Amino acid sequence: MYMGNLRRKDESWDYRTADTKEYTHCFHTYPAMMIPQIARRLLNQYGVEGEWLLDPYCGTGTSLVEASLFGMHSVGCDINPLVRLIATTKLTPIPLKTLDSELNKLNDALFQVEFGVDKIPDTPIPKIPNLDYWFSEEVIISIVYLLDCINKIEDEAVRNFITVAFSETVREVSWTRTSTFKLHRMPAEKLENFNPDVFGTFRKKLNRNREGLAAYMEKRKSVEASICDANTVDGELPMPRPLGGYNLVITSPPYGDSQTTVAYGQFSRLSAEWLGLPNARKIDRIAMGGSHASETLTDTPVSSAIDRIRSIDEKRAREVAAFYIDLERSINSVVQTVSPRSTVCYVVGNRRVKDVMLPTDEFVVYAFGKYGFTHKETIIRNIPNKRMPIKNSPSNVAGQTSITMNEENIVICQRTD
Ligand SMILES: C[S@@+](CC[C@H](N)C(=O)[O-])C[C@H]1O[C@@H](n2cnc3c(N)ncnc32)[C@H](O)[C@@H]1O
Fold first, then answer.
1. Mutation to probe ligand 1, out of 21, 22, 25, 57 (largest number of atoms < 8 A from CB)
2. How many contiguous H segments (helices) and E segments (strands) does the chain have?
3. Average pLDDT of the residues of the chain
4. Could you tell me the distance, in angstroms and rounded to a whole number, from the CA of residue 55 to the centre of ligand 1?
5. What is the pLDDT of residue 1?
6. What is the DSSP letter of 185?
7. What is the mean pLDDT of residues 312-338?
8. Handedness of CA 180, 80, 44, 24 (dihedral sign)
């Protein structure tokens, strides 16, 4: 597929020095987050106040938060229950008086045990496999206490707000390395000297998030926003469905299957297990491209690249094909929910496998093109801040690395029928 001059590099989309953590965007980190500036600019270009936006892979809800600030109703879906909780929380207004009163109570409870006024009560430790591989005994006791305090909070919105700060704390006080999103234990020498301040870390996050919420509450418009557990790959449709359909889609799908690209499940696992969320160990298998059917892809913009990969490694080719088959299925579902005059914006990366470049941007144009969407443009931007594996070893040979992803493509297609 020749996309000619519809594909252009534009550094004004890099936002090298922009604050990407304004409003509730500061709540919780996550792999391969979209930066709010991209969603904001796309909303300004293609959004209409009072209409509906969809994000079928919403993650922590970046485009949905921006839709609320812009004045569009929004729906997001994701298969990962931890991010559904984060996104819901980022979108939920809470009267600051209510929040502050609960935060004060919580602070008092922490203070009592921190300064030895009360003993941490003997609460049973949840049965989580390998807990002592990831946390010291001291940290486990503090986490159990925090969780106990959180579970006593009756107001659901406040409880969620505090749970989100808890979730980010759990990862930071664990023995997992912070240099990677995957679960890898710290080296022994680092682990010995690692004495995290659990309550201090938690408090800092609560304060930061409270500021973010206050700023969000001032600017957000009175619109609807909801998050649902719909897997568009399996044909499940996002709910609610607005009467005329969604007018705008702004989304960033995974770059490839979670096992070999970005491990969303591994990143979420520790807090998901503490919180008792479903599928805590299965997310990367349920995610796009996670199961490998024996179907093949012919006559698509990625087919010849997959053939080249197959000539080197049959299994890898199957894994890559599985991802694009899922992406196409998901697009088929999305198309059923959008309005006859809709704009879809997909932020995708053209990754390399076995040193073969996969033109995912062209695949998106092709998949929407089958339903009468016209390719408007593809903007290529540099990724200055995204914590992504910039280098990998495509051939799995130690020392042999190649640049995989330091730019991404914003593919914009429109339906005009
Ligand atoms: C690149 S991330 C989205 C990040 C998001 N834009 C943000 O700013 O946080 C891709 C998301 O797709 C989700 N995902 C993977 N397979 C999915 C599927 N079949 N249906 C819905 N979501 C899926 C992952 O759980 C992940 O949260």
1. 57
2. 14, 12
3. 92
4. 9
5. 61
6. B
7. 95
8. negative
Sequence-distant (≥ 6) Cβ neighbours of residue 39 within 8 angstroms: 62, 63, 66, 67, 250
What is the rounded CA–CA span in Å between residue 30 and residue 86? Answer: 10
- Identify the three-state secondary structure at position 94: coil
Question: Cβ(287) to ligand 1 under 6 A?
Answer: yes
Task: State the closest ligand 1 atom to the C-alpha of 251, by its place in the atom list counted from 1.
Answer: 6
Number of Cβ atoms within 10 Å of the Cβ of 302: 23
**Which residue from 319, 264, 334, 247 is spatially nearest to 56, judged by alpha carbons?**
334
Q: Is 273 in the pocket of ligand 1 (CB under 6 A)?
A: no
On the question of pLDDT at 205 being above 50, the answer is yes
Of the residues 264, 266, 360, 388, which should be mutated to test ligand 1's pocket, given the most ligand atoms within 8 Å of the CB?
264
**Closest ligand 1 atom to 232 CA:** 20
Residues 344 and 373: beta-carbon distance below 8 Å: yes
Sheet of 407-415, strands arranged across: 7-9, 373-382, 407-415, 338-348, 246-251, 52-55, 73-77, 225-228
Q: How far apart are CA 167 and CA 269, in angstroms?
A: 10
The residue whose CB lies within 8 Å of the most ligand 1 atoms, and thus the one to mutate among 15, 78, 260, 269, is 78
CA–CA dist 55, 250 (Å, integer): 6
- Give me the phi and psi of 273, to 5 degrees please: -70, -45
| Amino acid of residue 349 | G
Closest atom of ligand 1 to CA, residue 231: 20
Residues 6+ apart with CB under 8 A from 143: 135, 170, 173, 198, 274
Model-level pTM? Answer: 0.94
The length of the chain is: 417
Specify the residue for token string 């409003």: 23
DSSP per-residue string spanning 374-410: EEEEEEEEE-SS----SEE-TT--TT--EE--SEEEE
Going along the chain from its start, the domains and CATH numbers come out as: 4-21+36-90+221-262+280-415 (3.40.50.150), 96-217 (no CATH)
Distance 195 CA to ligand 1 centre (A): 33
Q: Give the C-alpha separation, 56 to 334, whole Å.
A: 7
* Gap from CA of 78 to ligand 1 centroid (Å): 6
Q: What is the pLDDT of residues 244-278, one digit of tens each?
A: 999 999 999 999 877 778 889 999 999 999 999 99
As a whole number of angstroms, the distance between CA 184 and CA 367 comes to 37
